[in-house]
Write a structure and sequence with these properties.
With 199 residues, the protein is of the alpha/beta class. 32% of the residues lie in helices and 19% in strands. A six-stranded mixed β-sheet has the order 1-8-7-4-5-6, with helices on one face.
Length: 199
C-alpha cells in the first residue's frame, strides 16, 4: 500500500485530511517514507524494475475518474477493450523528462492499434504541465491529479511507489505490468505488444 505525499513531497498541496487517512496504508513504501521524511526531495527515482502480472495474478479492473488539464473528464471504464498505458509524472521530475520523448513516440506508434496513453500529473498546476507537454511534444492527455485522487485509487491495485511510474493495463482494465522509474522504450514497447496479443 502507499500513502499520499505531503505538501513538500509529490503533491505540494495534497490536503492534510487525505494525508492522514492514507498514512495508515503506508507499510514499507519508499514514496510514503520520503513523504513522511519531508525532506523536499523532488522525486523518488525508481530503479527501472519491471514487474509483470500473469492473468491469474491480476486484480480487478482499475476504477478511477479524473479531470484532464484541458477540462475534459476521463473514466477508467472508458478504456476497457483497449490496452492502456498510465504514466505518473510531473514537470520538475528529471527522469520524467528523460522518458517523455519515448512515451510520445510509442503513443504515435500504437495509437492506431487500440492503445490509449494517459498521463497522471501528481504535482503541477495547469501552466507548468502544459509547458512540459509543449516542450516534449506530448499529444496524449494528462489528468490533473494534484489532490492525489487517481494515485490513491491505484494503491488498491498496484502502488506506483515512484515517480515516474508507468502501468500497462490489459484489455479488461487490469494492471498487467509496472515499471518503476524511467520507462525504457524497448521494454515498454514489448509490454504493450504482449498485452495486445492477449485474448
Amino acid at each position: 500500500m502507499t500513502s499520499l505525499m505531503s505538501r513538500r513531497a509529490l503533491f505540494a498541496a495534497g490536503g492534510a485530511a487525505l494525508t492522514v487517512a492514507l498514512a495508515a496504508c503506508s507499510g514499507n513504501d519508499p514514496l510514503a517514507d520520503q513523504a513522511n521524511a519531508g525532506d523536499n526531495k523532488n522525486y523518488i527515482a525508481g530503479d527501472g524494475s519491471v514487474t509483470e502480472y500473469g492473468a491469474a495474478d491480476r486484480k480487478d479492473p482499475v476504477a478511477f475518474k479524473g479531470v484532464l488539464f484541458d477540462g475534459g473528464t476521463v473514466d477508467a471504464a472508458d478504456f476497457v477493450g483497449k490496452v492502456t498505458v498510465l504514466n505518473f509524472w510531473y514537470a520538475a521530475c528529471g527522469p520524467c523528462r528523460i522518458e517523455a520523448p519515448d512515451l510520445q513516440a510509442l503513443y504515435t506508434d500504437f495509437k492506431s492499434q487500440d492503445v490509449e496513453f494517459l498521463g497522471v500529473n501528481v504535482r503541477d498546476e495547469k501552466a507548468a504541465a502544459e509547458a512540459f507537454e509543449r516542450n516534449f511534444g506530448l499529444s496524449y492527455p494528462s489528468v490533473a491529479d494534484k489532490d492525489g485522487g487517481v494515485l490513491l485509487a491505484m494503491t488498491k491495485y498496484v502502488p506506483p511507489a515512484a515517480v515516474p511510474t508507468t502501468l500497462v493495463l490489459d484489455k479488461l482494465g487490469r494492471v498487467c505490468a509496472r515499471i518503476l522509474g524511467v520507462a525504457e522504450k524497448g521494454t515498454l514497447k514489448a509490454l504493450i505488444s504482449s498485452a495486445l496479443t492477449e485474448k
